[in-house]
Structure formats: structure tokens, C-alpha cells
Design goal:
Blueprint: E1 2-8, H1 14-31, E2 34-40, E3 44-46, E4 52-54, E5 67-70, H2 86-97, E6 101-105, H3 108-114, E7 122-123, H4 130-136, E8 141-142, E9 148-151, E10 154-157, H5 162-175, H6 177-186, H7 202-206, H8 212-223, H9 231-238, H10 242-253, H11 257-274, H12 279-286, H13 291-299
Parallel strand pairs: 1-2, 1-5, 5-6, 6-10, 7-8
Antiparallel strand pairs: 3-4, 9-10
GO molecular function: DNA-binding transcription factor activity; sequence-specific DNA binding
Pfam families: DJ-1_PfpI, HTH_18
Protein name: Transcriptional regulator GlxA family, contains an amidase domain and an AraC-type DNA-binding HTH domain
């Protein structure tokens, strides 16, 4: 059981909290194994929108598989806002030191900074707070104008709706793109994943259509990413002819099913390489027979 614990700060923005919480709640429905909880320095934390939120003052002991989220709060300026006790900040730091992952939305990055988790790391926050965050933590490298940044188990996002993107990314890393895409469709949003050099993903670019037949084909490709899938097999799943698969898929996505699978494989391989895998290991993991094809596709 993976615990997702939200550390609530006075003035918390509801969407900063509710977006990621909905993603992991939906993940629990699809793959089980997730439990959500909410902690803070008081039994009741008042959101910026005026909704009182219940929280536990007991800070739980966590495992390396658990996640801690710090949603953002109302903060035209970071200084003087987002009060958290030293006890809460020490708990946040201890979870990271024990091998766990910590994440923030919007101004929540400042809480990670106060816990000493931004030093020497790439991070981001809401565009209105980026310059102040950089001044407050000069040893951090604040990346401007991206949705989120992941650096060695410290994940920070730009704010508000980007917390959903961050949560979908973490689900995709743990369970694969098909599960993340299914959650995004359940939430009636685009599946979205951001790397260091691009703001949208293959899922984002090619899942924005409304053709359910093509969605079913994409579901098969994403859930069996590393397998060889023939056009005839995809046609069986789609309930139509191979010619119709090619025509509908091209019209909805602008590419063939094979090109789509290759693009997903390269994107997944890029993530694995960014996490320390060799090109050879990444190629095998995503279904390439050897690293030569992956190198050719990456060079394009």
C-alpha cells in the first residue's frame, strides 16, 4: 500500500490539493494500493477559498514507496506566507532522507526549500514566484516556464492545474502510460507529461481527439508498449478492418499506429535514461531489440 500524504498549509489553494488528490484517488480505483491522508499543524486548515479542511496533527512514519505532497497556498509573495512548524519541516526532510519522494505544487516549493531539499537541485514554481524562489534559494536552479521538474525524488510543479500534470506523471512512471491516460480520460482532461525540454508529451499531443475507436487502439498500444503489435491484431481490438484502423488512426493522430508506439517508446526510454539507466537498458525495457534503433529515433 502506497500512502500519499498531503501536508496542508494555511491558505492552501483547493485546486493545488484537489487536482493531485483526484489523480491518486482515481489510481486507487484502477490499480488499488493507494491510500490518501492529510496532515498539518492544526486539526482544521482553512483554504484560501474559505473551505475548512480536516487534517491530522500526527505525522506518520512512511516508507520509501510513499509520497508527500505540499500543495501551494495564496502567495503574491513567498516571504511571510505558508507557515509550517519546524516539526513538520523536519518530518518532510526525514521522509526524503529515508529514500522517499516529495512533491510540491506552486508555492509549496518554498516549503521544500525551507526543509533544505532544493539546494543543488533543479526545481520550478508558479511563473509569478519563480524570481523570488531563485532569490530565496540561490543554490537551487529554478527552471522557468515548464510544467514540472523532477530531480532525484524532489518533484516541483508550476502551480494550480499543473499539479494534475505532475501527479499523472508520477502515476505513469509507476504504472505506465496506459494507466495515466485512463485516469486523464476519467477526469475529462488531456493526459500530460513534461520533461526537461518539452512542455507536452506524446499522450498530450495525440490523445486530444474524440474518436473512441482510436482511443481503444491507443489503449492497447500503451498497455503493451514493449510488445510487437500487428495491424491485424489492432484491427481485431478495434472491431474494424486494417484499412479502417490506418485511416482512422492517421486522421485522429497524424501518424500510423507503429509510429505512435515508437514515439511512446522513445519518450519512456528518455525518462529511464534521465533516471540513470543506460541506453541499452532503456531500449530493452521499452521493447527495442537493441539500442541502435533507439539511438536513431532519439537523434531525430
Amino acid at each position: 500500500m502506497t500512502r500519499v500524504v498531503f501536508l496542508l498549509v494555511p491558505g492552501v489553494h483547493l485546486l493545488d490539493l484537489a487536482g493531485p488528490a483526484q489523480v491518486f484517488s482515481s489510481a486507487a480505483d484502477l490499480v488499488n494500493g493507494y491510500a490518501l491522508s492529510y496532515v498539518g499543524d492544526a486539526d482544521t486548515v482553512l483554504s484560501h477559498q474559505g473551505v475548512p479542511l480536516g487534517a491530522s496533527r500526527e505525522l506518520p512514519s512512511l516508507s520509501v514507496d510513499d509520497l508527500v505532497f505540499v500543495p501551494g497556498w495564496r502567495s503574491p509573495k513567498i516571504v511571510g506566507t505558508g507557515h509550517l512548524s519546524e516539526r513538520a519541516l523536519a518530518w518532510l526532510r526525514a521522509h526524503y532522507d529515508g529514500g522517499g519522494t516529495v512533491a510540491s505544487v506552486c508555492a509549496g516549493a518554498d516549503a521544500l526549500g525551507r526543509a533544505g531539499l532544493l539546494e543543488g537541485r533543479r526545481c520550478t514554481t508558479h511563473h509569478e514566484l519563480q524570481e523570488e524562489l531563485a532569490r530565496r534559494y540561490p543554490a537551487a536552479h529554478v527552471v522557468r516556464d515548464v510544467l514540472f521538474v523532477e530531480d532525484n525524488r524532489v518533484v516541483t510543479s508550476a502551480g494550480i492545474a499543473s499539479g494534475i500534470d505532475l501527479a499523472l506523471h508520477l502515476v505513469a512512471v509507476r504504472h505506465g502510460p496506459a494507466v495515466a491516460a485512463a485516469i486523464a480520460r476519467t477526469m475529462v482532461i488531456y493526459a500530460r507529461r513534461n520533461g526537461d525540454d518539452q512542455q507536452d508529451s506524446v499522450l498530450m499531443r495525440h490523445r486530444s481527439h474524440i474518436n473512441e475507436t482510436v482511443h481503444r487502439i491507443q489503449d492497447v498500444i500503451e498497455s503493451r508498449l514493449a510488445e510487437r503489435l500487428s495491424l491485424s491484431e489492432l484491427a481485431i481490438h478495434a472491431g474494424c478492418s486494417e484499412r479502417t484502423v490506418t485511416r482512422l488512426f492517421g486522421r485522429a493522430t497524424g501518424m500510423t499506429p507503429l509510429k505512435y508506439q515508437q514515439a511512446l517508446r522513445v519518450e519512456r526510454a528518455e525518462h529511464l535514461i534521465g533516471q540513470g539507466a543506460t541506453v541499452e537498458m532503456a531500449a530493452r525495457n521499452v521493447g527495442f531489440e537493441d539500442a541502435r534503433m533507439l539511438r536513431r529515433l532519439r537523434s531525430r
